[in-house]
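Give me structure tokens for this 146-residue protein.
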Amino acid sequence: MTKEIKTEILINATPQKVWTVLVDFDNYPKWNPFIKMLKGDIKVGQQITVQIAPPEAKGMTFKPKVLAFDRNKEFKWIGRLLFPGIFDGEHKFELVDNGNGTTTFIQSEKFKGVLVTFLKKQLDNNTKRGFELMNEKVKEQAEQIL
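Here you go.
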């Protein structure tokens, strides 16, 4: 079973400003309603530690592997529950330069594995809402940068 959640928001700021907010991991606890903590060596192939708190759902801490970290464009990781095939999530933040001083910020995740069927409702509701709340805060933070 596979499932994808995809959200996007138009931000009145350049990709550089949006990226500055996105990678300011130390300040996530202050403003980020979805990802409460992200730490580690943020390099492709490295494992990081991420703590999420979807609205009205149980939070969790996991250790995904960084798949892409392309300045001002993309940050992507893959997390797994126990071992591959149970519940895998490939999370992606994408910044699209609209060429007019604005950025389309896309946050998505592709879920695969045997548990996806059982978690579909939670993914559609709590997880998607967490993405939307974070997107709104990224917008707010980036648009405040002078």
